[in-house]
Design brief:
Keywords: Cell adhesion, Cell membrane, Developmental protein, Disulfide bond, Glycoprotein, Immunoglobulin domain, Membrane, Myogenesis, Phosphoprotein, Repeat, Signal, Transmembrane, Transmembrane helix. The protein contains 4 helices and 94 strands. With about 1200 residues, the protein is mainly beta. The chain folds into 10 domains: about 100 residues, Immunoglobulins (Immunoglobulin-like, Sandwich); about 100 residues, Immunoglobulins (Immunoglobulin-like, Sandwich), CATH 2.60.40.10; about 90 residues, Immunoglobulins (Immunoglobulin-like), CATH 2.60.40.10; about 100 residues, Sandwich (Immunoglobulin-like); about 70 residues, Immunoglobulin-like; about 100 residues, Immunoglobulin-like (Sandwich), CATH 2.60.40; about 90 residues, Immunoglobulin-like (Sandwich), CATH 2.60.40; about 90 residues, Sandwich (Immunoglobulin-like); and more. Strands 62, 65, 66, 69, 70, 72, 74 and 75 form an 8-stranded mixed beta sheet that branches. A hairpin with a 2-residue loop joins β69 and β70. It is flat, with a radius of gyration of 72 Å.
Length: about 1200
């Protein structure tokens, strides 16, 4: 049998030819044929399958064919990763194993044995491997997992489509757990060959029982162990059940008015649940309801208050939902029982005794009708007539008439109309009246003081009117002399009449009248009346006159005129005695005859005659009416009005003191009637405006008020007062006190050394007080402010500070203080200038300045001197006056108080011409002094000097020194030290290079050391001549305290120091107190001469030197083109010395001398606002300087330098 090679397998065949058939080592003697044949097999997709093939043909190649495609003899079967041959080839086992079968494996298979030398080829029977593919999904319409809303009884179509499967699945529908029999199904080709889909449809008619149930589509297949399912939830809409009303009690519809009726309406079933509403006679009454979804029950509770008008009303409950075809309803007819809402008695229950009363009792509508009966107290009365009528809301109205005779003993009894009915057995309805039988009172009398009793005015009297019996209650009315007594309105304080209200006690009635007796009550008749009955009483009241009146024959009087006054006393009981007095002085008068007066009293009169004076104005003349029996006095006074011209009183102030810039009040004490019409003030012949001015006003009383008072306001003020009767004048002095102001203070005050001088301070002040002058000396140190060797005197407005045998230490700033008690004290600054001959600074016998003599460099020589007045500098070279007209020489002169400087600049230094001795001479009118400066070539630095220990610890030592002459080049320092007894030296560079202090560390406690200090520049070091600057030290032990040493170890002194250099000149140690900077501090520079022990060197490097100089500039000569700020042409001071040396301005070298003016190295102009003409430096005179900060004062006034 030939091999069948499919046309569509050329690649596989080529692989077989390339690889070759598998050669199996089958013994030649083995029988040929199959001992195991494959069989048809069915597997589910994803499962493994194995087709058996057992061969007994030795030496043959075995392979499998799939739908005619040879898979090859390789046991791994290339190209088919899920295929492999299983079994032992030696035993002829060639079983085809397929992992995870899929649809591509569904085919016909055969096992083939290739031709061999011993036999023909063999082929097994074809078998079929059938791969079952289960459906993966079911697609349901409506969408699976959703909830569909259907209406019960309506038909709906549902479709279900399966996914690809093999074979085609069977589909069934299950509705609410029941299989639907009638479905239509179609099988269709799937998305691939051999796959099928099934589409099934069914028509569903849901019922109310299906609500909430599932409609399931099930797909079953041989490839599935259990069917796959999808479902939808059925939401079936159906109408609710009929409503049911739960009636409380047995009699449906029967209720009573006033009852709260609670009715429950309930409807079961329905989706959605029922909507309930209550109606009354077809009109909506309540639309509130609740739903219990778990049992699909809708409930609505109606709560209503039953009223009589609800009788015959129909209450109904309606139920429906969105799918109801009609509204379902349940109704109840109301039968309402109600009592009468009110009972009314018509007629009057008030009647006089022994007369008939007629009344009618009528009820409101009731259901059923009620019966009426009458009661008088506990006695039943028989009606005269009864009537029944139709009423509202289906009820009835009852009416009963009654007529009976009333007696006095019936008064106050209760008359009752009672309604009753069998329907209201537990209730009684009544209407009551109180019977009022009228009859008169029987007796009337008054209780109070006895008739005719004497009472003093103001006595409180109580009268009570009493009556017995009577109905209605008798009205008790009080009368006074036939006029009704009433309480006054508004009430008086205190109330003279208090009328009580009618009071009843049993059958006795009373009314009280309380009054405070007054003149009008004297012998008045008080009567109480009750109907036809009356009672009266009467008493006597004693009272003083109610008022006293004074009559005058004139109202306005002048001094010397007579005044007649008459005092009239009105009614009193008993009569009074009249008397006169004036401001306590008794006056004699003339009495008139007494006469009758109101309130049954008597009146009196008395006159007096007075002569007037101005002192009587305003006095009171008093008339007194005295009753001896009553011990009371009534008074009246008459105030005298005397017209007279102004008169100044004894307390008039004649001197007023005020403080300048303050206020002053010039008071006026004047008496006049009428009041002065005008107050006119005059000062120095000028009248002050009555309307006021910027600094004054005249007050209403005439006083003059001034403010911002000045000393010009001091003087006499004349006051002129005037009224209609005349005029008067007075003088008032204003004494203005003001703070002192310095008017004369000679500044500066000059004196030669050893001379005498007075510093005179004259002030303007008020008041001038003895001892108001004080003097202060301005200085930073306490000893600088001492005035022990000076004398202070004062006389009047002048104070003096006397100085005898003036010394340089007394030069400086002084302050004159004048204080007279008026703030602020006056302060004036004055400078005492102690004049002395020039003193040029002589740091050493010979100063040195280094510069390269290559005709390209420049050098600057510094010369500084002290002296007052200003000094003039001259220069010589080798004794020959220097020609400053030579363009190579430029001099700048600066003056700072008593310190003066001259800077000589030499351009294009030549060794042949300029290495010489230059002499600077300072001269003023008192003398002269000079210094020599040697201009030399640049060289190695001089050794430093003054090496000393400033601090020490067991492990370190702090050193300090003064640099020597740097040779004209930048220098640096190096420390060499050794431990005694230990061979070798150690070296330490000082950083920064220009530092003059250094802490040497790394030492050992209690060890002796020797330390050297070396200086070096670009040309070499200072050498170790004389061992250099050296010092021995011994570090303290660990148990010794550390800190600054209490001793100073000097450096070894070089030889060749002159006596003057070692000791210094006496003049160099004299301080002029005008100088803030001191010579020692100013000489602390790093360009120095030979090292010394006591005198600090004074050398300056000239390279890039640009000092900050004071504002006073004299004899300035600028190089050509030095006229402005053109940087390229400026030769001073920036680039002038570039070739000579670096700029090195050491700390303190020029610190105080030039610290007042800031001039940058590239700005040669002096600030214009700081420039001063030195010729006028002493021209100012201090007068009254305002206090200010020290830095805000002009420099010459700060007390620093003159």
């Amino acid at each position: 049998m030939a091999l069948r090679i499919p046309v569509n397998a050329p690649l596989l065949l080529m692989g077989l030819l390339t690889t070759g058939l598998a050669q199996l080592p089958i013994p030649a003697s083995a029988p040929r044929g199959f001992w195991a044949l494959p069989e048809n097999m069915t597997v589910v997709e994803g499962a493994a399958a194995e087709l058996r093939c057992g061969v007994s043909a030795p030496g043959s190649a075995v392979q499998w064919a799939k739908d005619g495609l040879l898979l090859g003899p390789d046991r791994r079967i290339p190209g088919f990763p899920r295929y492999r041959l299983e079994g032992d080839p030696a035993r002829g086992e060639f079983h085809l194993h397929i992992e995870a079968c899929d649809l591509s494996d569904d085919a016909e298979y055969e096992c083939q044995v290739s031709r061999s030398e011993t036999g023909p080829e063999l082929v097994s029977p074809r078998v079929i491997l059938s791969v079952l593919v289960p459906p993966k999904v079911l697609q349901l319409t409506p969408e699976a997992g959703s909830t569909v809303t259907w209406v019960a009884g309506q038909e709906y179509e549902v479709s279900c489509v399966s996914g690809d499967a093999k074979p085609a699945p069977d589909i069934t529908f299950v509705q609410s757990g029941q299989v639907i029999p009638d479905i239509s199904a179609n099988v269709n080709a799937g998305s691939q060959e051999k796959l099928f889909t099934t589409e099934a449809k069914v028509r569903v008619t849901p019922q109310s029982s299906d609500n909430g149930q599932l409609l399931v589509c099930e797909g079953s297949s041989p490839a599935l162990d259990t069917p796959i399912k999808v479902s939808v939830t059925m939401n079936v809409l159906f109408p609710p059940g009929p409503p049911v009303i739960e009636w409380p009690g047995l009699d449906e519809g029967h209720v009573r008015a006033g009852q709260t009726l609670e009715l429950l309406c309930m409807s079961r079933g329905g989706n959605p649940p029922a909507t309930l509403q209550w109606l009354k006679n077809g009109q909506p009454l309540s639309t509130a309801w609740g739903t219990e979804h778990a049992h699909s029950v809708a409930r609505s509770m109606l709560v209503m208050m039953v009223r009589p008008e609800d009788h015959g009303a129909r209450l109904s409950c309606e139920a429906h939902n969105s799918v109801s075809t009609k509204i379902q309803e349940r109704g109840v007819m109301l039968q309402v029982t109600f009592p009468p809402s009110a009972i009314t008695i018509l007629g009057s229950a008030s009647q006089s005794e022994n007369k008939n009363v007629t009344l009618s009792c009528i009820t409101k509508s009731s259901r059923p009708r009620v019966l009426l009966r009458w009661w008088l107290g506990w006695r039943q009365l028989q009606p005269t007539e009864e009537t029944v009528m139709d009423g509202l809301h289906g009820g009835h109205i009852s009416m009963s008439n009654l007529t009976f005779l009333v007696r006095r003993e019936d008064n106050g009894l209760t008359l009752t109309c009672e309604a009753f009915s069998d329907a209201f057995t537990k209730e009684t309805f009544k209407k009551t009246l109180t019977l009022n039988v009228k009859y008169p009172a029987q007796k009337l009398w008054i209780e109070g003081p006895p008739v005719g009793q004497r009472l003093r005015a103001g006595t409180r009297v109580r009268l009570v009117c009493l009556a017995i019996g009577g109905n209605p209650d008798p009205t008790l009315t009080w009368y006074k002399d036939s006029r009704t007594v009433t309480e006054p309105r508004p009430p008086q304080e205190p109330r003279r009449v208090q009328l009580g209200s009618l009071e009843k006690s049993g059958s006795t009635f009373s009314r009280e009248l309380v009054l405070v007796t007054g003149p009008s009550d004297n012998q008045a008749k008080f009567t109480c009346k009750a109907g036809q009955l009356s009672a009266s009483t009467q008493f006597v009241v004693q009272f003083p006159p109610t008022n006293v009146t004074i009559l005058a024959n004139a109202s306005a009087l002048r001094p010397g005129e007579a005044l007649n006054l008459t005092c009239v006393s009105v009614s009193s009981n008993p009569p009074v005695n009249l008397s006169w007095d004036k401001e306590g002085e008794r006056l004699e008068g003339v009495a008139a005859r007494a006469r009758s007066a109101p309130f049954r009293g008597s009146a009196a009169a008395r006159s007096v005659l007075l002569r007037m004076s101005s002192r009587d104005h305003g006095h009171r003349v008093t008339c007194r009416a005295h009753s001896a029996e009553l011990r009371e006095t009534v008074s009246a006074f008459y105030r005298l009005n005397v017209l007279y011209p102004p008169e100044f009183l004894g307390e008039q102030v004649l001197v007023v003191t005020a403080v300048e810039q303050g206020e002053a009040l010039l008071p006026v004490s004047v008496s006049a009637n009428p009041a002065p019409e005008a107050f006119n003030w005059t000062f120095r012949g000028y009248r002050l405006s009555p309307a006021g001015g910027p600094r004054h006003r005249i007050l209403s009383g005439g006083a003059l008020q001034l403010w911002n008072v000045t000393r010009a306001d001091d003087g006499l003020y004349q006051l002129h007062c005037q009224n209609s009767e005349g005029t008067a004048e007075a003088l008032v002095r204003l004494d203005v006190h003001y703070a002192p102001a310095i008017r004369a203070l000679q500044d500066p005050t000059e004196v030669n050394v050893g001379g005498s001088v007075d510093i005179v301070c004259t002030v303007d002040a008020n008041p001038i007080l003895p001892g108001m002058f004080q003097w202060e000396r301005l200085g930073e140190e306490e000893e600088d402010r001492s005035l022990d060797d000076m004398e202070m005197t004062s006389k009047g407005s002048t104070g003096r500070l006397q100085i005898r045998q003036a010394k340089l230490t007394q030069a400086g700033a002084y302050q004159c203080i004048a204080d007279n008690g008026v703030a602020p004290p006056a302060r004036g600054l004055v400078r005492l200038v102690v004049r002395f001959a020039p003193q040029v600074e002589h740091p050493t016998p010979l100063s040195k300045v280094a510069a390269a003599g290559d005709s390209t460099s420049s050098a600057t020589l510094h010369c500084r001197a002290r002296g007052v007045p200003n000094v003039v500098f001259t220069w010589t070279k080798n004794g020959v006056p220097l020609d400053l007209q030579d363009p190579r020489y430029t001099e700048h002169t600066y003056h700072q108080g008593g310190v003066h400087s001259s800077l000589l600049t030499i351009a294009n230094v030549s060794a042949a011409q300029d290495y010489a001795l230059f002499t600077c001479t300072a001269t003023n009118p008192l003398g002269s002094d000079h210094i020599n400066i040697q201009l030399v070539s640049i060289s190695r630095p001089d050794p430093p000097s003054g090496l000393k220990v400033v601090s020490m610890t067991p492990y370190s030592v702090g050193l300090e020194w003064k640099p020597g002459f740097d040779g004209g080049l930048p220098q640096r320092f190096q420390i060499r030290y050794e431990a005694l007894g230990t061979p070798g030296f150690l070296y330490v560079d000082v950083l920064p290079p220009q530092a003059t202090t250094f802490t040497l560390t790394g030492l050992q406690p209690s060890t002796r050391y020797r330390v050297w200090l070396l200086a070096s520049n670009a040309l070499g070091d200072s050498g170790l001549a004389d061992k250099g600057s050296q010092i021995p030290i011994t570090t303290p032990g660990l148990d010794q305290p550390s800190g600054e040493p209490d001793y100073q170890l000097p450096t070894e002194q070089p030889a060749g120091i002159s006596e003057k250099t070692e000791a210094g000149s006496e003049e160099d140690r004299v301080r002029n107190e005008y100088e803030e900077s001191q010579w020692t501090g100013d000489r602390d520079t790093r360009s120095s001469t030979v090292s010394t022990t006591d005198v600090e060197p004074y050398y300056h490097s000239t390279r890039d030197f640009s000092p900050q100089l004071p504002p006073t500039l004299e004899e300035v000569s600028y190089p050509r083109a030095f006229t402005g700020l053109e940087a390229e042409d400026v030769t001073f001071p920036g680039h002038l010395y570039d070739e000579v040396e670096r700029l090195y301005a050491p700390s303190g070298a020029w610190g105080h001398l030039y610290d007042e003016v800031q001039m940058g190295p590239y700005d040669p102009r002096w600030p214009e606002d700081k420039f001063e003409d030195p010729r006028g430096i002493y021209d100012q005179v201090a007068e009254n300087f305002d206090p200010m900060e020290p830095d805000s004062l002009p420099f010459e006034l700060r007390g620093h330098l003159v």
